[in-house]
Specification:
CATH class: Alpha Beta
Order of helices and strands: EHEEEHEHEHEH
CATH superfamily: P-loop containing nucleotide triphosphate hydrolases
Bound molecules: guanosine-5'-diphosphate, magnesium ion
Strand order of the largest sheet: 2-3-4-1-5-6-7
Oligomer: single chain
Radius of gyration: 19 Å
Strand content: 15-25%
Largest sheet: 7 strands, mixed
């Protein structure tokens, strides 16, 4: 055949990539969640923060060291052949909050993981996303042994706005985590659409 393009191969569609943050208190299951769904070996990056190039006040609260290391979870999952999510686990330690602002750049939405035994550990993350208008979904990681509460009482305790979704999950289970991710993406896209409509009307 003169022209070699095979009609049998499906045209390759460049997937849309979306960035999702995974937040929540220390030990709530962020690393577990990213590891459960990631197709690449989840990377626990060690970021070296050097004093050079950073405004001094950015380092406020960090011990007087010239370098420090921060563990951050990073993973990737193909939800559909045309939709790839990049997951970024936010550093849990309070003193690394300043890193969140950089991480949050360009994020479509976020998961706030919660443990019903210490819901207050999730308050800071919820406040953070509310204040910045980043759509988030609360996922209760149902540890066995932890008392189960109805979604409504968890919503109440977290003082969630009615439009914020709350789902139950098992951070160790791939399908369960995929369901959370689908909920996050759908919710964030609906909100993004609404914002778009408000801006263009
Ligand atoms: N039983 C149980 N253990 C979990 C679950 N999710 C996480 N863990 C464990 O809880 C600990 C803290 O989880 P990790 O993912 O490191 O929390 P992170 O600090 O938020 O990253 C680890 O020992 C996990 O194996 C869960 O759904 N059930
Ligand atoms: Mg972790």
């Amino acid at each position: 055949m003169a022209f070699g393009r095979s009609s049998r191969t499906k045209p390759y569609v460049e997937p849309v990539t979306l960035k999702i943050l995974v937040a929540g208190g220390f030990g709530v299951g962020k690393t577990t969640l990213v590891g459960a769904v990631s197709e690449i070996r989840p990377l626990r990056t060690e970021e070296v923060l050097t004093e050079a190039g950073r405004p001094v006040d950015d380092l406020h609260g960090v011990e007087s060291k010239t370098t420090t290391t921060v563990a951050m979870d990073f993973g990737r999952i193909t939800l559909r052949e045309d939709l790839v999510l990049y997951l970024f686990g936010t550093p849990g330690q309070d003193r690394f909050w300043f890193l969140w602002d950089e991480l949050a750049q360009g994020a479509l939405g976020a998961i706030v993981l919660a443990d019903t035994r210490r819901l207050e550990d999730s308050f800071a993350a919820i406040d953070y996303f509310e204040r910045r208008g980043i759509p988030f979904t609360v996922a209760v990681n149902c540890f066995e042994g932890a008392q189960r509460f109805p979604a409504e009482s968890v919503r109440g305790a977290l003082d969630l706005d009615p439009e914020v979704e709350l789902v139950m999950c098992d951070a160790r289970d791939r399908e369960s985590v995929k369901n959370v991710l689908v909920a996050v993406v759908e919710h964030a896209l609906v909100l993004a659409d609404r914002t778009h409509a408000a801006v263009t009307s």
